[in-house]
Specification:
alpha/beta; 193 residues; single chain; five-stranded parallel sheet
Length: 193
C-alpha cells in the first residue's frame, strides 16, 4: 500500500499514524489537518488507496468526509473514533463501506485492519484487470464484426467471405485481426461515407 492520506486535527495522533504506516507498510502518507484541507486534496485529483480519518476533525465530525471519500473516490476509508461512539456509528460505517476503528486500539489490531484492506485492494485490482481484459476482448470482437458487416453491406460479400477477407488482410499486414478490422473500417468509411 503506497498511497495513504491521514486526516487528523491532532498533530501527535497524525505523527503516530504516519510512523505506523511508514514502518509497517513502507509508505510515506500524505497529511491533511482538517476536512476542508482533505476535500481540496481529493478535488485536486490526488489518488489514494486508503484514507484514514481520525475523528473528530477541527471543522467537522469526519463522518461527512468519510461519506465523500466513499462516494467520490476509489480509496478505502478508515474512520477512527472514540470507543463510546463506535457502536452508534456502526450502521453508518456499514452503509457507507467504511472500516470503523474504535480508539484506543493496539498497533497489532490496526495492523490487522490495514492488512485486510491491503488484501482487499489486491483482490479488487486483480478483478479490475480481468474486467479490463474482457472489455478489450469484447471491443475487439465488436470491431471485427463491424468490419465484417461493412464488407457484407458495401462489398456485397457473404459472411464467410468477409471473415476470410479480414483474416487474409490481417496476415498480409502482419497485425492482429482487430487492428486489421480497424483499418478496413477506416478505408470503407472513407470510400462509402
Amino acid at each position: 500500500m503506497e498511497n495513504v492520506i491521514i486526516v487528523s486535527g491532532n498533530k501527535s495522533a497524525s505523527e503516530s499514524l504516519s510512523d505506523f504506516f511508514t514502518e509497517s507498510f513502507q509508505c510515506n502518507p500524505r497529511h491533511a489537518e482538517s476536512a476542508s484541507h482533505a476535500y481540496s486534496i481529493f478535488e485536486s485529483g490526488a489518488e489514494f488507496e486508503l484514507a484514514v480519518v481520525n475523528a473528530p476533525l477541527p471543522d467537522e465530525s469526519g463522518m461527512r468526509l468519510c461519506e465523500y471519500i466513499s462516494d467520490n473516490t476509489s480509496a478505502f476509508c478508515m474512520l477512527i473514533v472514540k470507543s463510546e461512539n463506535a457502536a452508534r456509528l456502526s450502521d453508518f460505517a456499514d452503509k457507507n463501506n467504511i472500516v470503523l476503528v474504535p480508539r484506543p486500539f493496539s498497533k497489532a489490531s490496526l495492523y490487522q485492519s490495514v492488512k485486510l484492506i491491503e488484501i482487499s485492494l489486491r483482490r479488487y485490482f486483480k478483478l479490475y484487470q480481468e474486467a479490463a481484459r474482457l472489455e478489450q476482448k469484447i471491443d475487439e470482437v465488436r470491431r471485427i464484426d463491424k468490419a465484417k458487416f461493412m464488407l457484407m453491406e458495401y462489398k456485397k460479400m457473404s459472411e464467410q467471405q468477409a471473415h476470410s477477407f479480414i483474416e487474409k488482410y490481417a496476415m498480409n499486414i502482419r497485425k492482429k485481426k482487430s487492428l486489421a478490422a480497424y483499418e478496413i473500417i477506416n478505408k470503407l468509411t472513407e470510400e462509402y461515407m
